[in-house]
Write a structure and sequence with these properties.
This protein is an all-alpha fold. The protein contains 21 helices and no strands.
Length: 559
């Protein structure tokens, strides 16, 4: 029986590969979240009002653009790594990521031009991040023998998942100092990682020269891109509707994107050297693992945004935190989630090498689902210890699942296809994050739209706000109100301050309306209605992911 690739490699090289690719994955995923918590400081820094008409698009694109590019490109770049060399593509990713970080921190413009500069360079940065994501797992799979692969991929994947939540804390801390520091932080690590990668990493698997599948690459990139762009615009207000799902361009994008992806599947089944080898899906371990990863990613991504809104918009203000400080403290209070990842990921990756993956993947997803059910039962003004315990369990469940599942996916494919398989795995995960924003924001906004306007109007009138002004504030799209709290601003000051209505009120009414507790108390019932829908859907997604994980079947040690 031929030796497993990497089994005869010197021990030193595999640890070099692990440490460098872990740094690369950590950087790439930190930047997927660091901007979320820093948006208030960024928008102030470029003198752009995020709540002005039309500016919500810039806000969403700064967040979604990075996720969209990584979702679209990782399969192509993983396949390209199989052809020209995984280390070569990975190293180039470090260079592009670092240079884009420099460009982002040097944004020379203000207002709309400054926002466009950030969006464009975030897309370029995402190209570099895609190169790192697409090839890191393949490099590790080549370097480590099967008996240690789960441990190595566990460390790598937990660094990636932890990066999403460390980014929230890091962004809050750095943005208090200077918004440009959010991007400068990448530069020294990028330079070190680039030099280290070029000096230390080497190709340890045979390259497989092939023709590039241009038709497959094009239909996949355009189809998935159009689909995710349509989702981005679907959660924005349109006409008199709280969301844009009835917008003709959104409907056209959804239909056109799905149609192009169907064409992509047809092309891949007929070309001699496809971008994605559909034959890989004949492996139950590969198919079930990727399906479970997609569903778990959708549940995880939606939870991340909902927890931030819950903390920043309601819980922290109710406990005396000023709106300007809530982004930082929201990140800090989410630390148990990261701790859960770090505790469970490497340990379960190691144990799965000995006992097989099935117990850990399915068991982890059941713990993951149970944590959502627990969050569903929490009151909005919860005791923090209960919240911390539930998000710790959520992190543990996600860590139990992620590392063994990645190991099972990568071990289920032939060595010559590991680059493409790594890209496909990353595409499922990144697409899940993008889809989750559209799905869960839509569910939340739908829940708010049915109750928030009347609640808001009644509450404002009770404090002396004229009926016309109260009706106008209540008629604004719920997504604008939610994003106001999400960005760490007092929604009542934002809604009523420019109208001059606050100046006409008594000092007592004015202080009540602009206080930290008025809006959270007012929105609690409508928000809880939307949150119930969101967490119920997330629990359902997690249970479906557990069922998909069970489909891998067979003796656990062999899957």
């Amino acid at each position: 029986m031929p030796a497993e690739p990497g089994s005869a490699r010197p021990d030193r090289y595999k640890w070099v590969a692990l440490s460098n690719t872990t740094l690369g994955m950590f950087m790439a995923t930190v930047d997927a979240s660091i901007v979320i918590i820093s948006l208030p400081a960024i928008f102030r820094g470029i003198h752009l009002d995020p709540f002005a008409a039309g500016n919500i698009s810039y806000l969403l694109w700064i967040i979604m653009g990075y996720l969209l590019v990584t979702a679209v490109l990782v399969v192509t770049l993983g396949r390209l790594g199989d052809i020209v060399g995984r280390v070569r593509i990975y190293n180039l990713g470090f260079v592009i990521f670092t240079l884009a970080s420099v460009a982002l921190s040097l944004d020379p413009a203000l207002g709309t031009a400054g926002a466009i500069w950030l969006i464009v360079w975030r897309l370029v940065q995402a190209i570099g991040g895609s190169m790192l994501m697409a090839n890191s797992a393949a490099i590790l799979t080549d370097a480590f023998p099967a008996s240690q692969r789960g441990t190595a991929l566990g460390v790598n994947q937990i660094a990636a998942l932890a990066g999403q939540f460390i980014g929230l804390v890091l962004g809050g801390i750095l943005s208090v100092w200077d918004w440009r520091a959010v991007f400068w932080i990448n530069v020294p690590f990028g330079i070190i990682g680039t030099i280290w990668a070029y000096r230390s990493l080497r190709e340890v698997s045979a390259r497989h020269p092939a023709r590039i599948d241009w038709w497959g690459n094009t239909t996949f990139a355009v189809g998935l891109g159009i689909l995710l762009i349509a989702i981005t615009y679907g959660i924005q207000p349109y006409g008199g509707h709280p969301m844009g799902w009835t917008r003709p361009t959104v409907l056209g994008g959804l239909i056109g994107g799905v149609a192009l992806l169907a064409v992509f599947v047809l092309i891949e089944s007929r070309v001699a050297q496809p971008m994605v080898r559909l034959a890989l899906f004949r492996s139950r371990a590969f198919t079930a693992g990727n399906l479970a990863a997609l569903l778990a990613s959708i549940a995880r991504g939606g939870m991340q945004f909902m927890l931030i809104i819950w903390l920043q918009g309601i819980w922290l203000p109710l406990h005396g935190y000023d709106y300007a400080d809530t982004p930082l403290w929201a990140g800090i209070f989410l630390l148990p989630l990261m701790v859960g990842f770090l505790l469970a990921g490497p340990l379960c990756g190691y144990l799965s090498d000995r006992y097989g993956v099935l117990y850990f993947t399915t068991g982890g997803l059941l713990v993951f689902a149970a944590s959502f059910i627990g969050l569903l039962l929490l009151p909005l003004n919860f005791p923090y210890w209960a919240f911390a315990l539930l998000i710790l369990l959520n992190g543990i469940g996600s860590g139990m699942f992620s590392a063994p599942n990645t190991s099972a996916i990568m071990s289920a494919v032939p060595p010559e296809h590991r680059g493409a398989a790594s890209g496909m795995r990353a595409t499922f995960q990144n697409s899940g994050m993008s889809l989750s924003i559209g799905i869960f924001f839509s569910l939340l906004i739908a829940g708010l739209a049915s109750r928030l306007p009347e609640t808001l109007a009644t509450g404002l009138r009770a404090q002396g706000v004229p009926a016309a002004a109260a009706a106008h504030a209540a008629s604004l799209p719920p997504v604008s109100t939610v994003f106001t709290a999400f960005l760490g601003a007092n929604p009542m000051q934002t809604l009523l301050g420019p109208t001059g209505v606050l100046d006409s009120l008594s000092p007592a009414d004015r202080d009540t309306i602009t206080g930290d507790t008025f809006f959270p108390n007012l929105i609690s019932a409508p928000f809880h209605h939307g949150l119930t829908i969101v967490f119920a859907a997330a629990a359902g997604m997690a249970l479906l992911a557990a069922a998909a994980s069970l489909l891998r079947g067979g003796p656990p040690a062999e899957r």
